[in-house]
Amino acid sequence: MSKSLVWRVGLLAVVVAIAITLFLPSMPGVRDSLPDWWKNNRVLGNKISLGLDLQGGMHLVYQVQTDQAVSSATSRLMGSLKSSAAEKAVPLTDIKQTSATEIEAVTTTPADMDKFLTLVADLGTLESKTREGNRIVLAMKAKDAERLKENSVTQALETIRNRVDQFGVAEPVILQQGVDEILIQLPGIKDPQRALNLIGKTALLEFKMVDEDTKLTPPLPSSVPASEADALVAQYAGKIPPTDQILFEREVDPSTGSVSKKPYLIKSETMMTGSYLKDARVTISGRTGEAEVSFEFDPAGGKIFDALTAANVGKLMAIVLDGNVYSAPQIRERISGGSGVITGRFSESEAKDLAIVLKAGALPAPLKPLQNLTVGPTLGNDSIDSGKKAILLGCLLVVLFMAIYYRMSGVIADFAIALNLIVLIGALAALSATLTLPGLAGILLTIGMGVDSNVLIFERIREELRLGKSVRAAIDGGYDKAFTTVLDSHVTTLITAAVLFQFGTGPIKGFAVTLSLGIIINLFTALVGTKVVFDFINSKWKLAKLSI
Amino acid sequence: MELIKKTNIDFMGLRKIAFAFSSVLAILGIACIVMIAIGRANLGIDFAGGASADLMFTRPVQIEEARKALDKGGFRDAELQAFTGGTKMLVRVKKTDVPVGEVVDRIKAAFVTAFPDNPVTIDSSSAIGPTVGKALQKDALLAVALSMLGIIIYIWFRFEFRFGLAATIATFHDVLAVLAVFMLLHKEITLLVVTALLTVAGYSLTDTVVVFDRIRENLRIRQKDNLLDIINESVNEVLSRTIVTSMTAFLAVLALFFFGGEVLHDFAFAMMGGIIVGTYSSVFVASPLLYVWPGKKGGRLIKTAMLTKQPLRAAVSAPAAAAAMPATPAPAPSEPRAEKAAASGKKKKPKSKARA
User: CA torsion angle for A474, B207, B152, A448 (degrees, to 10)?
Assistant: First the structure.
């Protein structure tokens, strides 16, 4: 055996060994029995992960409504201005928010307006837009508004991350996408609906007072079917005081499952928000045995809550979450401990999720769902099954065809296919690639297209033999002359695979990756791998006739 | 075993019929593109926005009842597909105003209301807003355009411009033909289908390159002969090569078509159609285009071939060679340009290999 042949056989053996080594961590049973240094190595420890379409899971894209974050911030600024005006005794006749970024204020005299303006300057974020004597329009500075928008996206990301962490999903993906979009991937999730609720909830907790003084005619019904809630609000639109709003408490009839809503007349002013919450936990009420959420304020919140409850003993306070009334208990006494309880006929998982969401904090702005893909476990498993079957059948068809059409040389080509697959899987593992269903299709195509390299070579060899060349010369000539054509065929497929990789979404990227890698590896296995076998056979047995 | 021994089919003679057939396919394909542009084509929800849900019922449900239930729930033009005897149903809804976050719930609610005693669960679902769909459409178009550009540039490097043009037209024709088939069968065009089209484009090019390689060689060797005859004989020589390579890819995709599951079904169908059309176009579209363009005598074509400094290989002069001799340029000093282009043009490089 010539020296070059020995080297090449050695090279093949080494490549196969490396590929198998790389693949080992991806096999679920094997991974655990590997020593730690192997598992944690940056290259050796990588494994192939399954895409969402094979594993099951959720892929969500949300858009953060940054405009609303700005609007809420403006509203908070207005609140601060009001209280500091009251503190410094600057008489304000009127102050209201006129748009997402603008506040209009009127004082009694222009001199008072000057005093008011110093308060505005102290606050910093607002600037004067137009002023006429004692009337002024304030606007949020553009830079501040921009910064607020960016921060709201980052904050939303953090909040979602906290929530998902506490929910307990293995290997979630939470990323910012573009300017204001958030991408969330939750692999292997068992309860998609719960996850959706957990993530999408703005979770703005507000404490508002129930308006017990205004009498409405006709009085509010005690409950309406859920679908008529909007109609009810429209019906009372002109009749309720401008400082009030109608909010509903959601009730589900346990026997029929129908949803009804109980209306409350609530004073719109938010007395306190959930941003002061320090902790929230699920507790079981000793009295009713139902799950409740106990919460605790931080010291600053505790003080505000103390003042609030002291001023409103005997009145009804509504606990409002995302615009829905959860309960409206009566304040029986002043609460100085800074803690409270939210009840609402929760199931234990509902209470748990509410606690998670309150603890992780409210989202700075609502999330608008743009895309929601859920792959259930059944579809995931079905996909894996059909992928496996297709690859097996495809392999079989191609292998048989080559063996029949090119006889022994065909069998050699089949050996190259096997080599190709082994190295491909090793490469995928080394790159920590994600295998998707189209990725499996890519593997199948690698087999179908890769074998073409051998077809081109073998057809050339046949031609050389027909010209009367010796077996050795025919083999060499065939490989020589077919080389550029093989190269061309692979490059053209690679061009489109590269474009697909660039533009494709997750599953398509998976396809592009397996196809590209497979084709590149095929250049090696088809040209070197099979030639080694031919040369080996030739050197051992000096063939007079070639089975091709 | 050899399926196709020495053939002598007059491919060029059939070119008028082939052009007519191909033109029809191309026009249909363009019609499909127009329909996509005006929004009347059957686009999948990943392009058009909308929702789809895999529902599992406890007891079988008839499609008609399901359709009525959806109607009542406010989903007028839903597409329905039933599997495994009616217990599994795929619902697809496009063009709905219901926001992404609620649409799947509403679909389920429609069924809960209509069949209160037949519990239903949702196994998988997709809800995609219209803006995402539009962004994807743009991306897909860009991808197709870039691929075509890459192909033109690559063939331009490997051959002369006329070859490049003929190859690109043939490849574009393949994409249009598959689109036409999808339109005629009113099949849904999803992102996977576009992926199949792009893969087909890249793959059909290999076929075309094999034929062109041979034509270029024969042009160099047999300068005295009629261009028509040269092209004809070149195609005949590589016919077996072309058909077998397509056959192997076709077998692989066939397995996918039968066993690949619902998700990959249309993808496999597009690939199968594409492989067949790709083979057809290399023989009946790309090669005759070389003859037709430019000028009937093909004088310029031969002249340019002569200008590329390819030495004639010694083996070629063997008198026994009546039919053309295979003489691919050796990949060493005589063809630095092509070698450089092949290796440098694209991002991925072939692994280094030991030369025999």
Answer: -100
**Whole-number Å distance between alpha carbons of B97 and B129:** 10
Q: For residue A460, give the amino acid letter.
A: R
Name the pTM for this structure. Answer: 0.75
Write down the residue that tokens 């304020």 correspond to: A297
Distance CA B229, CA B94 (A): 54
A81 burial type by CB count under 10 A (0-12 exposed, 13-18 middle, 19+ buried): buried
Cβ-based contacts of B197 with chain A (< 8 Å): none
pLDDT over 60 (residue A378): yes
Cβ atoms of B212 and B329 within 8 Å: the answer is no
From the list B1, B248, B263, the residue facing A437 with the nearest CB is B263
Q: Tell me the CATH number at B235.
A: 1.20.1640.10
Partner B, chain A 371-430, Cβ-Cβ below 8 Å: 371-379, 382-383, 385-387, 389-391, 393-394, 396-398, 401-402, 404-407
What crossing angle do the helices spanning A437-466 and A506-524 adopt, rounded to 10°? Answer: 30
Q: Which of A15, A18, A8, A19 is nearest to A424 (CA)?
A: A19
- Triad A145, A150, A152: Cα angle to 5°: 90
Q: Which residues contact residue A437 at a Cβ distance below 8 angstroms, ignoring those fewer than 6 apart?
A: A51, A53, A54, A383, A387, A507, A510, B261, B263, B264
Residue ending a domain, among A125, A144, A163, is A144
Co-location of B87 and B182 in the same domain: no
pLDDT above 80: residue B327 = no
Contact present, B221 and B254 (Cβ < 8 Å): no
Q: Are residues B299 and B169 in the same domain?
A: yes
Distance from CA of B230 to the nearest CA of A (A): 18
Q: Is residue B3 part of a domain?
A: no
Please judge whether B350 and A523 are an interchain contact, meaning their C-beta atoms are less than 8 angstroms apart: yes
Domain count, chain A: 3
Domain assignment present for A184: no
pLDDT in the model for residue B4: 65
- Give the pLDDT confidence score for residue B3 in this predicted structure: 66
Tally of domains within chain B: 2
Task: State the average pLDDT for chain A.
Answer: 84
Q: Is residue B318 part of a domain?
A: no
Contact A455 B244 (CB under 8 A): yes
Nearest to B36 by CA among B183, B197, B135, B191: B183
Q: Which domain holds residue A106?
A: 67-144
Hey, of A55, A370, A379, which one would you mutate to test binding to chain B, going by the most B CBs within 10 A of its CB?
A370
**Is the domain of B123 the same as that of B212?**
no
Pick left, alpha or beta for residue A113 (phi over 0 → left; psi -120 to 50 → alpha; otherwise beta).
alpha
Measure the CA–CA gap between A273 and B50, rounded to whole angstroms: 37
Q: Same structural domain for residues B202 and B57?
A: no
- Select from B198, B261, B321 the Cβ nearest to the Cβ of A383: B261
- What span, in angstroms and rounded, lies between the C-alpha atoms of B189 and B183? 9
Residue B293 belongs to domain spanning = 12-38+133-311
Residue in chain A lying closest to B352 (CA):
A524
- The C-alpha torsion from A303 through A308 and A311 to A315, rounded to 10°, is -150
Q: Please report the pLDDT score of residue B332 as a whole number.
A: 39
The confidence score (pLDDT) of residue B178 equals 92
CATH number at residue A525: 1.20.1640.10
- Contact (CB, 8 A) for B176 and B28: yes
Same domain, A313 and A354: yes
Both B215 and B279 in one domain: the answer is yes
Mutate one of B87, B102, B115, B123 to test the A interface: name it (highest A CB count within 10 A): B123
Find the closest chain B residue to A387 by CA distance. B260
- Would you say residue A68 has pLDDT above 90? no
Q: Are residues A99 and A219 in the same domain?
A: no
In terms of domains, do A313 and A387 share one?
Answer: no
Tell me the residues of chain A between 231 and 260 that have a Cβ less than 8 Å away from chain B: none
